[in-house]
Write a structure and sequence with these properties.
This protein is of the alpha+beta class.
Length: 364
Amino acid sequence: MKTTVSIIKADIGSVGGHAVTHQALKDKCNENLSKAVEDGLLSDFYITNCGDDIDMIMTHTNGVDNTEVHELAFNTFMEGAEIAKGLKLYGAGQDLLSDTFSGNIKGMGPGSAEMEFEERGADPVFAYCCDKTEPGAFNLPIFKMFADPFNTAGLVIDPKLHGGFEFEVYDVIENKKVTLACPDEMYDLLALIGSTGRYVIKNVYRRSDGEIAATISTDRLNLMAGKYIGKDDPVALVRAQSGFPAGGETTEPFSFPHLVSGWMRGSHNGPLMPVAESDARPVRFDGPPRVLGLGFQVCNAKLVGPIDMFADPAFDEARKTATLAANYMRRHGPFEPHRLPSEEMEYTSLPGVMEKLEGRFEDM
Ligand code: 13P
Ligand code: 13P
Ligand code: MG
Ligand code: MG
């Protein structure tokens, strides 16, 4: 029997502005998912949060896109949002675009990343969860894990990885997708995924046998809703070892806190800081953007672990670099490239200014 790992996540309300979700909301998730385990829908789950986003990491045997699992997640977030409203939390129900579930959670606001596989003798799976950024933030680290031999030694020295990986890339503006194989089409792939706001890696497959290796939530809330409401803070699931990158080859890309968009009002670029679960608390200028990493072993559709991958002094230097980069970027204030280009601005303040000044622009 195959095992499915699903992460379904949403921001349904937070304390301290957009800083951190409330324990009462996580308690509600725990209650509903515990019941789903009793009822046999889920095998196991682990609930965490990165900042204001609750990440429900679930295992089951129902396959991806399962209506009952999606409905459980959606209704749980709906009930949590009611509690959030009662506590007057910030952005209560922020990511929920609809009141009623209609078959699949995609397009309803919450983000999802799911994979189904036949369990190996030992099956390490990593969950990476972000806040204050967008799905394209994973393009660089996922590329490095599965295509960069300077990151992943296994691509060179492990015959099981040597054939390379295929990347399924979504064009989130035109709603199209393309699959490119590495190493052969690496430069074509980079030409696309360097544009992180438009081309987003959705899935990675091992070329030798088509086995799923990684999947990323690509849901872009603002594009769905047609206006800014939240920032699509993404999650990724990555398989490791024995024919996939080693666990440490999946954490290694995050030792470089690359610049991502989504900081402050979804409208600024800043470094992605790798943090322990206890530090997933973006409070400086609502950031800087964060990523946490959890390492599990999947065993008969149950989750063993997790290990908090970035709760390690080896990532202190990355956090220091992120702080330096944050200082440097912050000094630009309202200027690009700290502030996003106007066409990518998430809030409507710029168009508001343009409307106001419209009659005052003259031909030169
Ligand atoms: P695998 O054979 O499981 O990929 O182990 C290699 C390893 O972990 C070296 O760090
Ligand atoms: P979230 O997308 O995490 O809710 O953050 C929104 C924001 O504007 C923070 O400044
Ligand atoms: Mg929020
Ligand atoms: Mg968030």
